[in-house]
Amino acid sequence: MLSYIPFLVLIGLITCCIAVFGNATLDGASQVSLMVAAAVSVLIGHFSKRLEWESLEKEVSDKIASCTPAIIILLLIGAIGGTWMVAGIVPTMIYYGMQIIQPEVFLVSSSLLCALVSLMIGSSWTTVATIGVALMGIGKAHGFDDGWIAGSIITGAYFGDKLSPLSDTTVLASSVSGTPLFTHIRYMLYTTVPSFCISLTIFLIAGLTMNVSGHGNVAEFMDGLQHTFVISPWLLIVPVLTGVMIARRWPSMVVLFMAILLAVVVALLVQSELVLRIAGDDGQGLLTSYKGMMRVCYGSTDIETGNQVLNELVHTSGMSGMMPTIWLIICAQTFGGALTATGQLQDLMRLVLRFVKGTASLVASTVGTSLFCNIATADQYLSIMLASSMFKETYREKGYEPRLLSRSCEDSATVTSVLVPWNTCGLTQSTVLGVATLTYLPYCFFNLLSPITSIIVAATGWKIKRRCS
Fold first, then answer.
1. Closest among 404, 376, 382 to 391, alpha carbons compared
2. What's the rounded Cα separation, in Å, for the pair 73 and 67?
3. Of the candidates 83, 88, 127, which has an alpha carbon nearest to the alpha carbon of residue 227?
4. 279: buried, middle or exposed (CB in 10 Å: 19+, 13-18, 0-12)?
5. What is the pTM (predicted TM-score) of this model?
6. Which pLDDT score, from 0 to 100, does residue 456 have?
């Protein structure tokens, strides 16, 4: 019974944090809550099991060390987010993507556009808060209901976020389960693509059969992009080369680093005036350009486009923007290490594993636990890390490859977080889009289908292999 206390303390603290801090919970309140819950776990372990401090330190150190690759990748992701934006690569993708939006196919187009942007920048939050806001206005002008518009936006944003090698949740899920990043992404295709295709089909049919009218005006948005960046299809060479490196299975760190270098070269050659403006100096030399690109890589970048929504879209945070997530990872691993060292995690696992009989039940238990963590802890990062920690040893003992665990966590923890009204994702997206969580929930078909598809695929045994002994 004592093993439940740290979780109850964490749930209580995070609930209070959500009520007090709202969307700013991840700025530090969640991290402090994790440390307090870890302290409670240690106290219980010390008095009930006479836990030795040295074993606790070793367990926590090992947990944090296991996430070192994820931390490095997150820093690279911060840099690539800034460089790809300033180089005009992401703006070019958005510019050409906006031209495909027509009323009859608006819903399916908005999903595809959000999926493309989210895949490129690796952030569902940024996608929803920027291009999603613009699409809400366009959709309303076309006469679509808020729930349908928000559902199509969130469906695309979370599809792209889930499969993007730049996504922090994708990196996190692969790292904590011990799965190579691109192995994790390729394995998710078996459950993610069917769910997304079904969702797109629903949006396409709905758009063609709904009686809507009106014309969305995206001219101002496109003009802002064109007047701020040099827009050219030639810039798409960088993502194409990045895709080639991924296809050739280069190590993720190498791919990300090379993608940054390519974007830096493009930015200096094509967007030189913008780089000088970011540097904030009146100089025109190489040192000024160097200063500008360094700021793009490590810090916050604000670019004035003449359009407030567009300003938010092209804003980047660089490596520094990854620090709250890295901070959260360290604190969560400390909590996980304390639970493991005290044996409390094992006690909880014994309760859950009573219901595990085969592959389908194991995946279903993982999905259910991830969903419970999303509801209980109100954060997708915590849900991924807690579910991975709880089931990692079980998957290994039963002979399953770690990629099955990482996929099961992403199929549930990542995509369902936005469906929980008090979860940080649900709070953020409902506030940004101006649509209540329960209003858009029935139309987030991808998010609803993903956990179900994960269990169905596991039940069929498709592409599920055992470890070689």
1. 404
2. 10
3. 88
4. buried
5. 0.72
6. 94
The sign of the dihedral angle between the CA atoms of 179, 182, 186, 189 is positive
Residue with tokens 């994960």: 454
Written as six digits, the tokens of 398 are: 């039963």
d(CA 64, CA 61): 5
Nearest to 11 by CA among 388, 344, 375: 375
pLDDT 10s digits, 337-368: 888 788 777 777 777 777 777 788 889 989 98
Distance CA 258, CA 424 (A): 33
Pull the structure tokens for residue 171.
């990196």
Q: Provide CB contacts within 8 A for 429, sequence distance 6+.
A: 125, 128, 150, 154, 418, 437, 440
User: With DSSP H G I counted as helix, E B as strand and the rest as coil, what are the percentages for the chain, rounded to 5?
Assistant: 80, 0, 20
Q: DSSP letters along 75-144, please?
A: HHHHHHHHHHHHTTHHHHHHHHHHTT--GGGHHHHHHHHHHHHHHHH--HHHHIIIIIHHHHHHHHHHT-
Distance between CA atoms of residues 330 and 339, nearest Å: 14
**DSSP labels, 360-380:** HHHHHHHHHHHHHHHHHH--H
